Amino acid sequence: MAQLEFDDEGSRLVEEFNESTGAKVRRGRILSALSIRPGSHVLDVGSGPGHQAYEVAAVVGSGGSVVGVDSADSALEIARRRCSNLSNVTFELGDATKLPFPDATFDAAMSSQTFEYLEEAPAALAEMHRVLKPGRRVLIHDTDWGAMVWHTEDRARMDRVLHAWDGHLADPQLPRTLGRKLADAGFTDISVEAVIQLDTNCNQGSVSSILMKFVIDYVTSHGISQDEADAWANELAELNSRGKYFYSSNEYIFTGAKP
After folding, report:
1. What phi and psi values does residue 141 have, to the nearest 5 degrees?
2. Domain of 44: which CATH number?
3. Predicted TM-score of the model (pTM)
4. Which domain covers residue 249, as residue numbers?
5. Is the pLDDT assigned to residue 83 strictly greater than 80?
6. Which residue, 44, 67, 199, 257, has fewest beta-carbon neighbours within 10 Å?
7. Do 54 and 82 touch, CB atoms closer than 8 A?
8. Phi/psi of residue 152, each to 5°?
């Protein structure tokens, strides 16, 4: 399985994706579910280009802090640039399974769209449990890619493209087992809520139009010809022009507490 590489181009696409309306709504839902207060010290695992960290920083204020950890230098560069005017935000290069912090450091620990890429999700959850203070909150947000609906009039081609796309993840259906994994890591009071991404138009700022760029970039290096990928994208554009475009995906926000 060859996962998506978050090189400079990948990080740029994540930056573009995070500016979409759907991503902004999702960040608001995550912020609400995290239930942080002024003065909180928050860890963001897989912080990417820093959009969520920037918004969390406004809530925790000058008495709190946000630390982002990511494994991609290009993402860290974008995040540091985004948060350069904030004194309560820092970013570090790091591994989710070996977090460089002492036990019981943070008041909240979160991760968005990261655990589905991890081969060792239980080890990463154990690390989040370790660095979280007792009685404090963890939040994990990921997508169940098996619950995605993308309308097409060529189902065989759509199936080929999406089957290739599944290879970009360690676990394309992670949310189905994430509750059990959180419990096994020692978290209690686990709850989950759904975030639905829905596009009935494919415009420049829609979630699915940006996702399309990720898909084409990945699948053309993993078994799908450029001609077939172009035909797939052209069909979606044509469906959009006829008012027949439909995309939906299910994301899930899991929360829990460290006893």
Report:
1. -120, 130
2. 3.40.50.150
3. 0.92
4. 8-257
5. yes
6. 257
7. yes
8. -155, 155
